[in-house]
Amino acid sequence: MHDQLSLTFSALADPTRRAMLAQLSKGDANVSDLARPFLKDMSLPAVTKHLKVLERAGLVTKTKEAQWRPCKLNGAPLKDATDWMEQYRIFWEESFDRLEEYLKTVTAKSKTKSHTKSKGKKNGRKK
Amino acid sequence: MHDQLSLTFSALADPTRRAMLAQLSKGDANVSDLARPFLKDMSLPAVTKHLKVLERAGLVTKTKEAQWRPCKLNGAPLKDATDWMEQYRIFWEESFDRLEEYLKTVTAKSKTKSHTKSKGKKNGRKK
DNA sequence: TTTATATTTAACTCATTGGTTAATTAACCG
DNA sequence: CGGTTAATTAACCAATGAGTTAAATATAAA
Protein backbone atom coordinates (compact mmCIF):
# COMPACT_ATOMS: atom_id res chain seq x y z
CA MET A 1 0.00 0.00 0.00
CA HIS A 2 1.12 3.53 -0.72
CA ASP A 3 -0.38 5.68 1.98
CA GLN A 4 2.10 7.54 4.11
CA LEU A 5 1.22 5.83 7.36
CA SER A 6 1.74 2.39 5.86
CA LEU A 7 5.06 3.49 4.39
CA THR A 8 6.18 4.74 7.77
CA PHE A 9 5.12 1.68 9.72
CA SER A 10 6.63 -0.74 7.26
CA ALA A 11 9.89 1.20 7.24
CA LEU A 12 9.97 0.82 11.02
CA ALA A 13 9.20 -2.88 10.86
CA ASP A 14 12.83 -3.87 10.56
CA PRO A 15 15.46 -3.85 13.31
CA THR A 16 18.27 -2.86 10.97
CA ARG A 17 16.37 0.21 9.85
CA ARG A 18 15.41 1.11 13.39
CA ALA A 19 19.07 0.84 14.37
CA MET A 20 19.97 3.18 11.52
CA LEU A 21 17.47 5.72 12.78
CA ALA A 22 18.93 5.35 16.26
CA GLN A 23 22.36 6.08 14.88
CA LEU A 24 21.11 9.08 12.94
CA SER A 25 19.46 10.40 16.08
CA LYS A 26 22.97 10.88 17.44
CA GLY A 27 24.01 12.98 14.48
CA ASP A 28 24.09 13.06 10.72
CA ALA A 29 26.16 10.41 9.01
CA ASN A 30 27.07 9.47 5.49
CA VAL A 31 26.29 6.07 4.03
CA SER A 32 29.49 4.26 4.97
CA ASP A 33 29.39 5.59 8.54
CA LEU A 34 25.85 4.40 8.73
CA ALA A 35 26.72 1.04 7.22
CA ARG A 36 29.74 0.29 9.42
CA PRO A 37 27.88 -1.38 12.30
CA PHE A 38 26.07 -3.71 9.91
CA LEU A 39 28.85 -4.78 7.57
CA LYS A 40 29.45 -7.93 9.63
CA ASP A 41 25.89 -8.96 8.90
CA MET A 42 25.23 -7.68 5.42
CA SER A 43 26.72 -6.07 2.34
CA LEU A 44 26.86 -2.40 1.50
CA PRO A 45 24.20 -2.63 -1.21
CA ALA A 46 21.87 -4.14 1.37
CA VAL A 47 22.40 -1.07 3.52
CA THR A 48 21.77 1.19 0.55
CA LYS A 49 18.46 -0.56 0.06
CA HIS A 50 17.41 -0.16 3.67
CA LEU A 51 18.32 3.46 3.42
CA LYS A 52 16.17 3.82 0.35
CA VAL A 53 13.21 2.42 2.26
CA LEU A 54 13.77 5.01 4.98
CA GLU A 55 13.98 7.73 2.36
CA ARG A 56 10.79 6.64 0.62
CA ALA A 57 9.08 6.86 3.99
CA GLY A 58 10.48 10.36 4.44
CA LEU A 59 12.31 9.37 7.61
CA VAL A 60 15.72 10.16 6.18
CA THR A 61 16.91 12.78 3.74
CA LYS A 62 20.14 12.31 1.86
CA THR A 63 22.16 15.20 0.48
CA LYS A 64 25.32 15.51 -1.58
CA GLU A 65 28.76 16.39 -0.35
CA ALA A 66 31.50 15.46 -2.83
CA GLN A 67 31.48 11.69 -3.03
CA TRP A 68 29.69 11.40 0.31
CA ARG A 69 25.97 11.28 0.98
CA PRO A 70 25.27 12.79 4.37
CA CYS A 71 22.01 11.50 5.80
CA LYS A 72 19.75 13.26 8.23
CA LEU A 73 16.92 11.97 10.35
CA ASN A 74 13.55 13.55 9.69
CA GLY A 75 11.06 12.95 12.47
CA ALA A 76 7.93 14.32 10.81
CA PRO A 77 6.49 10.96 9.72
CA LEU A 78 6.98 9.67 13.25
CA LYS A 79 4.71 12.39 14.51
CA ASP A 80 1.89 11.18 12.28
CA ALA A 81 2.50 7.63 13.42
CA THR A 82 2.38 8.50 17.11
CA ASP A 83 -0.66 10.68 16.54
CA TRP A 84 -2.37 7.68 15.03
CA MET A 85 -1.39 5.49 17.94
CA GLU A 86 -2.48 8.03 20.51
CA GLN A 87 -6.10 7.27 19.78
CA TYR A 88 -5.51 3.82 21.24
CA ARG A 89 -3.81 5.01 24.40
CA ILE A 90 -6.82 4.10 26.47
CA PHE A 91 -6.35 0.50 25.40
CA TRP A 92 -3.04 0.17 27.10
CA GLU A 93 -3.47 2.33 30.16
CA GLU A 94 -3.79 0.94 33.65
CA SER A 95 -7.38 1.82 34.28
CA PHE A 96 -8.58 0.30 31.09
CA ASP A 97 -9.67 -3.11 32.29
CA ARG A 98 -12.05 -1.62 34.83
CA LEU A 99 -13.24 1.04 32.41
CA GLU A 100 -13.98 -1.52 29.76
CA GLU A 101 -16.04 -3.63 32.13
CA TYR A 102 -17.97 -0.53 33.08
CA LEU A 103 -18.68 0.49 29.49
CA LYS A 104 -19.75 -3.02 28.63
CA THR A 105 -22.38 -3.19 31.36
CA VAL A 106 -23.61 0.30 30.51
CA THR A 107 -24.21 -0.41 26.84
CA ALA A 108 -25.72 -3.78 27.71
CA LYS A 109 -28.28 -2.08 29.93
CA SER A 110 -29.15 1.04 27.90
CA LYS A 111 -29.35 -0.39 24.40
CA THR A 112 -30.30 -3.92 23.40
CA LYS A 113 -27.54 -3.97 20.84
CA SER A 114 -25.30 -6.30 22.86
CA HIS A 115 -21.83 -5.89 21.47
CA THR A 116 -21.29 -9.51 20.38
CA LYS A 117 -20.09 -10.93 23.66
CA SER A 118 -22.67 -12.06 26.20
CA LYS A 119 -22.08 -15.68 27.20
CA GLY A 120 -25.04 -17.91 26.53
CA LYS A 121 -27.19 -17.55 23.45
CA LYS A 122 -26.96 -14.47 21.36
CA ASN A 123 -25.86 -14.03 17.80
CA GLY A 124 -23.26 -11.59 16.65
CA ARG A 125 -25.53 -8.86 15.35
CA LYS A 126 -26.57 -10.53 12.10
CA LYS A 127 -27.63 -8.32 9.14
CA MET B 1 12.14 -10.55 11.48
CA HIS B 2 10.67 -11.96 14.64
CA ASP B 3 11.15 -9.40 17.35
CA GLN B 4 7.98 -8.05 18.88
CA LEU B 5 8.46 -4.47 17.74
CA SER B 6 8.89 -5.52 14.13
CA LEU B 7 5.80 -7.71 14.36
CA THR B 8 3.81 -4.80 15.71
CA PHE B 9 4.97 -2.27 13.15
CA SER B 10 4.48 -4.59 10.23
CA ALA B 11 1.00 -5.48 11.44
CA LEU B 12 0.20 -1.76 11.46
CA ALA B 13 1.66 -1.23 8.01
CA ASP B 14 -1.59 -2.01 6.26
CA PRO B 15 -4.69 0.18 6.03
CA THR B 16 -7.08 -2.76 6.15
CA ARG B 17 -5.60 -3.96 9.41
CA ARG B 18 -5.57 -0.47 10.87
CA ALA B 19 -9.23 -0.13 9.94
CA MET B 20 -9.94 -3.40 11.72
CA LEU B 21 -8.28 -2.12 14.85
CA ALA B 22 -10.31 1.07 14.57
CA GLN B 23 -13.46 -0.99 14.40
CA LEU B 24 -12.43 -3.09 17.37
CA SER B 25 -11.71 0.04 19.34
CA LYS B 26 -15.47 0.69 19.21
CA GLY B 27 -16.23 -2.68 20.71
CA ASP B 28 -15.57 -6.37 20.34
CA ALA B 29 -16.72 -8.00 17.14
CA ASN B 30 -16.70 -11.43 15.63
CA VAL B 31 -15.03 -12.21 12.34
CA SER B 32 -17.94 -11.60 10.00
CA ASP B 33 -18.82 -8.31 11.70
CA LEU B 34 -15.23 -7.34 11.32
CA ALA B 35 -15.14 -8.48 7.70
CA ARG B 36 -18.34 -6.77 6.57
CA PRO B 37 -16.81 -3.37 5.66
CA PHE B 38 -14.16 -5.05 3.51
CA LEU B 39 -16.15 -7.65 1.63
CA LYS B 40 -16.56 -5.30 -1.32
CA ASP B 41 -12.80 -5.25 -1.65
CA MET B 42 -11.69 -8.71 -0.65
CA SER B 43 -12.79 -12.19 0.25
CA LEU B 44 -13.45 -13.55 3.71
CA PRO B 45 -10.30 -15.69 3.80
CA ALA B 46 -8.31 -12.55 3.10
CA VAL B 47 -9.82 -10.99 6.19
CA THR B 48 -9.04 -14.11 8.21
CA LYS B 49 -5.43 -13.74 7.18
CA HIS B 50 -5.24 -10.11 8.16
CA LEU B 51 -6.75 -11.04 11.48
CA LYS B 52 -4.11 -13.70 11.95
CA VAL B 53 -1.40 -11.10 11.42
CA LEU B 54 -2.98 -8.94 14.09
CA GLU B 55 -3.17 -11.92 16.43
CA ARG B 56 0.46 -12.89 15.85
CA ALA B 57 1.40 -9.33 16.78
CA GLY B 58 -0.70 -9.66 19.93
CA LEU B 59 -2.92 -6.76 18.91
CA VAL B 60 -6.07 -8.86 18.82
CA THR B 61 -7.21 -11.84 20.84
CA LYS B 62 -9.85 -14.17 19.50
CA THR B 63 -12.07 -16.29 21.72
CA LYS B 64 -14.76 -18.90 21.12
CA GLU B 65 -18.49 -18.43 21.36
CA ALA B 66 -20.46 -21.17 19.62
CA GLN B 67 -19.61 -20.85 15.93
CA TRP B 68 -18.54 -17.25 16.39
CA ARG B 69 -15.09 -15.94 17.16
CA PRO B 70 -15.36 -12.71 19.12
CA CYS B 71 -12.28 -10.56 18.73
CA LYS B 72 -10.93 -8.06 21.19
CA LEU B 73 -8.39 -5.31 20.77
CA ASN B 74 -5.31 -5.58 22.95
CA GLY B 75 -3.36 -2.34 23.18
CA ALA B 76 -0.27 -3.61 24.98
CA PRO B 77 1.96 -3.90 21.90
CA LEU B 78 1.02 -0.35 20.93
CA LYS B 79 2.43 0.87 24.19
CA ASP B 80 5.83 -0.60 23.36
CA ALA B 81 5.66 0.92 19.90
CA THR B 82 4.85 4.39 21.18
CA ASP B 83 7.50 4.06 23.87
CA TRP B 84 10.00 3.33 21.14
CA MET B 85 8.86 6.35 19.12
CA GLU B 86 8.93 8.65 22.11
CA GLN B 87 12.70 8.71 22.01
CA TYR B 88 12.43 10.55 18.69
CA ARG B 89 9.92 13.12 19.85
CA ILE B 90 12.56 15.82 19.82
CA PHE B 91 12.96 15.25 16.10
CA TRP B 92 9.48 16.37 15.28
CA GLU B 93 8.87 19.05 17.86
CA GLU B 94 8.63 22.73 17.02
CA SER B 95 11.81 23.90 18.68
CA PHE B 96 13.90 21.30 17.01
CA ASP B 97 15.16 23.23 14.02
CA ARG B 98 16.61 25.98 16.18
CA LEU B 99 17.97 23.48 18.68
CA GLU B 100 19.65 21.51 15.96
CA GLU B 101 21.32 24.58 14.54
CA TYR B 102 22.53 25.43 18.02
CA LEU B 103 23.97 21.97 18.65
CA LYS B 104 25.66 21.97 15.29
CA THR B 105 27.51 25.22 15.89
CA VAL B 106 28.46 24.13 19.40
CA THR B 107 30.06 20.86 18.33
CA ALA B 108 31.72 22.58 15.38
CA LYS B 109 33.40 25.06 17.71
CA SER B 110 34.37 22.86 20.67
CA LYS B 111 35.61 19.73 18.93
CA THR B 112 37.19 19.45 15.47
CA LYS B 113 35.07 16.40 14.76
CA SER B 114 32.77 18.23 12.33
CA HIS B 115 29.57 16.26 12.13
CA THR B 116 29.76 15.40 8.42
CA LYS B 117 27.97 18.43 7.04
CA SER B 118 29.80 21.70 6.60
CA LYS B 119 29.41 23.00 3.05
CA GLY B 120 32.70 23.61 1.24
CA LYS B 121 35.57 21.19 1.49
CA LYS B 122 35.52 18.79 4.36
CA ASN B 123 35.31 15.04 4.42
CA GLY B 124 32.69 13.10 6.31
CA ARG B 125 34.68 11.90 9.32
CA LYS B 126 36.88 9.38 7.53
CA LYS B 127 38.27 6.35 9.44
C1' DT C 1 -30.08 -36.18 10.31
C1' DT C 2 -30.01 -32.71 7.19
C1' DT C 3 -29.26 -27.90 6.55
C1' DA C 4 -27.55 -23.39 7.38
C1' DT C 5 -24.16 -20.21 9.36
C1' DA C 6 -19.42 -18.93 10.76
C1' DT C 7 -14.89 -19.53 10.07
C1' DT C 8 -10.68 -21.80 8.69
C1' DT C 9 -7.53 -24.45 5.72
C1' DA C 10 -5.47 -25.81 1.35
C1' DA C 11 -3.47 -24.93 -2.80
C1' DC C 12 -2.25 -21.77 -5.86
C1' DT C 13 -0.62 -17.09 -8.04
C1' DC C 14 1.78 -12.82 -8.29
C1' DA C 15 4.36 -8.91 -6.35
C1' DT C 16 7.44 -7.31 -2.97
C1' DT C 17 11.29 -7.75 0.29
C1' DG C 18 15.79 -8.57 1.75
C1' DG C 19 19.67 -10.37 0.58
C1' DT C 20 23.66 -11.64 -2.69
C1' DT C 21 27.83 -10.60 -6.16
C1' DA C 22 29.62 -8.08 -9.95
C1' DA C 23 29.77 -4.02 -12.50
C1' DT C 24 29.18 1.04 -12.81
C1' DT C 25 29.16 5.85 -11.70
C1' DA C 26 31.05 9.86 -9.32
C1' DA C 27 34.41 12.60 -7.16
C1' DC C 28 38.64 13.33 -5.25
C1' DC C 29 43.93 12.82 -5.05
C1' DG C 30 48.73 12.32 -6.62
C1' DC D 1 45.76 10.49 -16.53
C1' DG D 2 45.30 6.55 -13.33
C1' DG D 3 44.11 5.07 -8.86
C1' DT D 4 41.23 5.13 -4.73
C1' DT D 5 37.17 5.87 -2.09
C1' DA D 6 32.03 6.30 -1.80
C1' DA D 7 27.94 4.84 -3.26
C1' DT D 8 24.59 3.04 -6.55
C1' DT D 9 22.80 -0.04 -10.11
C1' DA D 10 21.96 -4.50 -12.32
C1' DA D 11 20.76 -9.08 -12.29
C1' DC D 12 19.60 -12.60 -9.74
C1' DC D 13 17.36 -15.64 -5.88
C1' DA D 14 14.65 -17.35 -1.88
C1' DA D 15 11.20 -16.18 1.34
C1' DT D 16 7.16 -13.64 2.57
C1' DG D 17 2.81 -11.17 1.90
C1' DA D 18 -1.64 -10.44 0.07
C1' DG D 19 -4.88 -12.05 -2.56
C1' DT D 20 -7.76 -15.77 -4.93
C1' DT D 21 -11.23 -20.07 -5.22
C1' DA D 22 -12.64 -24.35 -3.50
C1' DA D 23 -13.01 -27.53 0.13
C1' DA D 24 -13.24 -28.60 5.05
C1' DT D 25 -14.64 -27.98 9.84
C1' DA D 26 -17.63 -26.65 13.76
C1' DT D 27 -21.71 -25.43 15.84
C1' DA D 28 -26.52 -24.48 15.93
C1' DA D 29 -31.21 -25.15 14.35
C1' DA D 30 -35.01 -27.45 11.94
Distance between the termini of chain A: 30 Å
- Look at the helices and sheets of chain A and give the structural class: mainly alpha
Q: How many helices of chain A?
A: 6
Number of distinct beta strands of chain A = 2
Tell the overall outline of chain A: elongated
Largest interface: A-B, 54 and 52 residues
Topology of chain A as a string of helices (H) and strands (E): HHHHEEHH
The level of helicity of chain A is: 40-55%
Computed over alpha carbons, the radius of gyration of chain A is 23 Å
What strand order characterises the main sheet of chain A? 1-2
Beta-strand percentage of chain A?
under 5%
Low-confidence stretches of chain A: 111-127
- What about the largest sheet of chain A? 2 strands, antiparallel
Mean of residue pLDDT values of chain A: 83
Q: What oligomeric arrangement do these chains adopt?
A: homodimer
Keywords for this structure?
homodimer, two-stranded antiparallel sheet, elongated
Question: Can you characterise this structure?
Answer:
Chain A is mainly alpha-helical. Helices cover 50% and strands 5% of the residues of chain A. A two-stranded antiparallel ribbon of chain A has the order 1-2. Chain A is elongated. Residues 111-127 of chain A have low confidence and may be disordered. At the A-B interface, helix 1, helix 2 and helix 5 of A face helix 1, helix 2 and helix 5 of B. Chain A binds a DNA duplex (30 and 30 nucleotides) through residues 14, 16, 30-32, 35, 42-46, 48-50, 52-53, 66-69, 121, 123-124, 126.
